Amino acid sequence: MHKLASRVEQISPFHVMAVLERAKYLQSKGFDVIHLEVGEPDFIAPRNVSEAGCKTILEGRTGYTAANGLPELKKAISQHYFDRYETVVEEDRIIVTPGASGALLLMASLMVESGDNVLMPDPCYPCNRHFLLQCGAQAKLVETNAVQNFSIDLSSLDEYWDGNTSGMWLASPSNPTGAVLSRDYIESAWKEVAARRGHLLVDEIYQGLVYDGEDFTALSIDRDIFVINSFSKFFAMTGWRLGWIVVPDWAIEGATKLAQNLFISAPSVSQYAAIKAFDKESLKECEARKEEFSERRNTLLEGLREIGLPVVAPAQGAFYVYVDVSGVTDDAMAWCLALLEEKNVALTPGADFGVKDAHKYVRFAYTCDQERLQEALSRIKLFINR
Ligand SMILES: Cc1ncc(COP(=O)(O)O)c(C=O)c1O
């Protein structure tokens, strides 16, 4: 008898996979499917990064690097924090990882004991729960709502924080809601968490993609806050599998030990190439794409309002809008599948991100051009009015 570890059973599959599979099938049959379910930019790495990647391979710089990352890349990341966010982040506090996913696994391994729980908002990025599970710990989802911008009500923390709570994980901008947390909010969250002797992690993977509100780093608030980031989103380098975590001074040694053991090193080609992500031309390219995202966001918010699906939370960042469809269905998952079947528009059901109101929500990712977005909106309008 073959038996998988029992923790595998606790990992829920992504519902969006059912959508994606069906979307691919329909496409293979010649249907014109519009993909608004995909959580990755429809752009590729900046030109200088791609060129540097090719050069790195041809020059054979393809071996392991230092476990916590190439010193030149860490220097560039540190400089970026200073130039763009006026924040001093010493290079030795930066550990380069295989994507933010690697950083999340490292974070869970570094800070969470077996039997612990970690607070996070409902809805949030689903893999967080599963990284904790690998460490024998659990996510404890805290109810939020659109009116409060899907952020945890800090005055209710005592209801959720118990003897086994080790900390709180937040993300700003957020996946799936696009919500951006304010500086005041992060300061208050840190105050509450520190008072309870917990750790605070802020996932800043969508940093740079803020259209409304302050684009800042939680590292500017306190050097004991953990921050993770990645080249996947602003730099459009999802498949390069490169991210990083910034840890407090007292955690550098432990984090380095874990990085050595979990990863040996992040991909070397990606690391050499990513140094070029911070040069002037690359940043200009990324800024232009941010503008494009911003225009798409306006189109989507306006279009959703027109078709009777108003967005309550402002979705100030990332490339997502989390939309309440309870006015037109009582089962968002079934609605997504029917929309795909009848109008060939693919969305992600809320069930992938949360529990409480998941059946009411769908996530739109504006990762396709304006024309396709407009077309998707027209199809959804027809679908609702059918
Ligand atoms: C909030 C959040 N954190 C982390 C990740 C992992 O990203 P990656 O491993 O590509 O850097 C994602 C991916 O979509 C995400 O949305």
Automatic annotation (TrEMBL):
Gene Ontology biological process terms from the UniProt entry: amino acid metabolic process
Q: Which CDD domains match?
A: AAT_like
**E.C. number, please?**
2.6.1.-
Q: Which GO terms describe its molecular function?
A: pyridoxal phosphate binding; transaminase activity
Entry cofactors: pyridoxal 5'-phosphate
Q: Which family does the similarity line name?
A: Belongs to the class-I pyridoxal-phosphate-dependent aminotransferase family.
Q: By its UniProt entry, which PANTHER family does this protein fall under?
A: AMINOTRANSFERASE, ASPARTATE AMINOTRANSFERASE
Protein name, as recorded: Aminotransferase
Species classification: Bacteria, Pseudomonadati, Pseudomonadota, Gammaproteobacteria, Oceanospirillales
